[in-house]
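Holo prediction — flavin-adenine dinucleotide.
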Amino acid sequence: MDALDLPRPAWMTEDLVLLEEQARRFIASEYVPHLDEWNETGMYGREVWTKAGGAGLLCPAIPEDHGGVGGTFAHEAVIARELSLGGFDSFGAPLHSGIVAPYILNYGTEEQKKKWLPRLATGELIGAIAMSEPGTGSDLQGVRTTAKKSGNGYLLNGSKTFITNGQHANLIIVVAKTDPKAGAKGTSLMMVETDDAPGFRRGRKLAKLGLDWADTSELFFEDVKLPAEGLLGSEEGQGFVQLMRDLPQERLIVCTAAIGMIERALRLTIDYVKERKAFGKAIIDFQNTQFELAECKSEATIGRVFHDHCVERHIRHELDTVTASMAKYWLTDLQNKIVDRCLQLFGGYGYMDEYPISRMYRDARVQRIYAGTNEIMKLLIARSL
Ligand SMILES: Cc1cc2nc3c(=O)[nH]c(=O)nc-3n(C[C@H](O)[C@H](O)[C@H](O)COP(=O)(O)OP(=O)(O)OC[C@H]3O[C@@H](n4cnc5c(N)ncnc54)[C@H](O)[C@@H]3O)c2cc1C
């Protein structure tokens, strides 16, 4: 299964090895048989979430008294890698578990944690985070959505786009201005429970180049009434600081998906070139194939080692923004490069939808764009020079 023949990283405890095996079996039996069907319908069902919750694959880093299993980021990483190895890159669970839930855990009041975390862990609630707007993505200070004080609570107005889990999500963190004149210091994270939110509307599931089954969507908020606890935490104006603190983890999750896809692409390609023949011999017997795959395997190994280094530092709470940005830009660039080289070795079949490498080629592209574009990553790294 493992295309890189690497020993397990030091952070993989026995407990995590068991989780890896359990997640692999669950994904193989519950999700993999349906991937083609979801590919045709362009969507996976709501039950995919509750099944993941039932199997303990959602929010594993949430403490037990809040409904999780009391794990660490390593648990998130194991599950996210298995989803990519299984070919379910379109599933928004890593964002739900590794991005949305931690905001609540790290910045929510006790009441907010009690109210939302257990239901995120079961899949009763599906999380999304809505930062990007039609007019602003990289420059989050330009957000125009507002949350104005109204009575004891807030009135939320604005629109968001490109939001992962946009059709299924019923608990959405919305980046909004509570004080539009104060710039970054006027930004807050607002919590919207959409099951009872008049004025909230979902736009269409956006048609896109890849991640076909992901319900990436537009969202609209028109005078949506929020109670006082609709503000995440107890102090307005903390949104930007909260976002900046949690971004390294968001980037690392993208890296884990990248490394999972790289390993899968290599495994599928090595199998294929051993089977396929041209000019009377297997494709693997051409020196060009061997050199291509030798380079891909070497670079993938470097990538995996860097990834594991970052995970280990993150578990110790020592992963800084600059290193996380290096990992995000470098590993997602590498992912695109390796998947492209692998696809070439499939010849025409690599271009056909029924071959997973074709889907991987399309799915990989967005990794260089979301969670901060790779250009923004380089800006952050450059500040450390
Ligand atoms: C499939 C998908 C899922 C997504 N999911 C989510 C989600 O769940 N939640 C969410 O909030 N957003 C989500 N996004 C949005 C994503 O985070 C943004 O698209 C991304 O941050 C870039 O913003 P933008 O599209 O507005 O591009 P822009 O900011 O307009 O950038 C355009 C180009 O200019 C470059 N650029 C911008 N500023 C600079 C600069 N200072 N220096 C050099 N170059 C620069 C960029 O790198 C890019 O190449 C998703 C996007 C996609 C495609």
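READOUT: The mean pLDDT is 96.
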